[in-house]
Amino acid sequence: MYSQGLRDSKAGDDSPELLEAFQKRIDAEEKIEPRDWMPQAYRKTLIRQISQHAHSEIVGQLPEANWVTRAPTLKRKLILLAKIQDEAGHGLYLYSAAETLGESRHKMYQDLLSGKAKYSSIFNYPTLNWADAGAVGWLVDGAAIMNQVALCRTSYGPYSRAMVRICKEESFHQRQGYDIMIKMANGTPEQKAMAQDALDRTWWPSLMMFGPSDKDSTHSNQSMKWKIKRFSNDDLRQKFIDATVPQAEYLGLTIPDKNLKYNEKTRHYDFSEIIWDELFDVIKGNGPCNQQRMDARNKAYDDGAWVRAAAATYAEKQQNNKQDKEVA
Ligand code: BYC
User: Fold this and answer.
1) Which atom of ligand 1 lies nearest, measured to the CA of 49?
2) What domains are defined for the chain?
3) Model confidence, pTM
């Protein structure tokens, strides 16, 4: 943990002057840096959001990992491996960004493993056919980019800087997914049916990635005031739908929503009500793959115990050698 000299209030004693000065900095679009004064609730909200984001990147490797051994060509396998490796990197940048707020990586990770911390609902759905690897890249990474491009302008400096690099990589991920979809949609009738099936199953869960509707979002108001979030959940969801419908049309695939229709007046697509009970159920741990995902993360952690022990022993030896040299 490399954050030192944290400066914020004790619970409840944020003075109005400090809060006002802080809000002025936010309104002036100044970035807040790790050693700056910040309200305790701002710090807490960031630790919550950034650590959940990091967990999503780490757990998000699992659905695609399902296809590494069965990717149809060596080239597809290499691309998929590179993408999954990028997701691990994103998780690490994000844990580092959260550490600058004074939270230890160990604590964040334990919260994931115990089921206390959330991660994105989307990763609790299975990837059943090869076209799912395409749909994940196209829709899941596509939704992620829509949300993350906005986060490049988030008010907390380390988070916004991490997002710039992450977005560059996510845009490659989205394109590789769409490239798989193009191939499948223009392939044999069976391949096109697989692409349609993947879209049918991934569409609604990808819309749920943006979170509950604005009226049910507990954190949005305050997070928007602090410019942690730059757009509301519903606004980003709408942007994503507007951008994605023409892409589905180009593929010759049908988005599974009978009410999806361009509205000339609003210049946006109208769409059906999302089944919110499904989102809340998955968040509570009752999605199709929640248990499988948690078991996989816990097993990886347990299997890696010897690596952590070896690394700690090596670090200790290095430290002792350094001290010996200093004494000599
Ligand atoms: N799933 O008040 P709200 C990726 C929770 S990974 C689960 O609107 P907020 C990728 C929410 O946490 C990209 N939980 O919250 C990786 C809150 O619970 P708590 C992941 C959800 O924070 C590998 C409660 O519901 N992206 O790209 O203002 C392969 C109330 O919600 C969800 C990020 O993490 C959900 N879908 O807004 C491929 C982006 N939605 O904490 C791709 C960063 C809501 O009170 N995060 N909840 O217990 C954000 O932008 C915001 O946190 C959210 C939610 C928009 C997700």
Assistant:
1) 52
2) 16-299 (1.20.1260.10)
3) 0.94
- Ligand 1 centroid–CA 223 distance in Å is 13
* pLDDT tens digits, 110-128: 999 999 999 999 999 999 9
> Which ligand 1 atom is the nearest neighbour of the CA of 121?
1
Q: How far apart are CA 45 and CA 119, in angstroms?
A: 15
Report d(CA 238, CA 263) in Å as an integer.
12
Task: List the one residue out of 118, 121, 127, 119 whose CA is nearest residue 62.
Answer: 127
To test the pocket of ligand 1, the residue of 58, 283, 289 to mutate (highest count of ligand atoms within 8 Å of its CB) is 283
Q: Which residues pair with 269 in a beta bridge?
A: 262
Judge contact between 243 and 249, C-beta under 8 A: no
Summarised one tens digit per residue, pLDDT across range 44-54 is 999 999 999 99
* Top mutation candidate among 52, 167, 176 for ligand 1, by most atoms within 8 Å of CB: 52
pLDDT at residue 5, rounded to an integer: 45
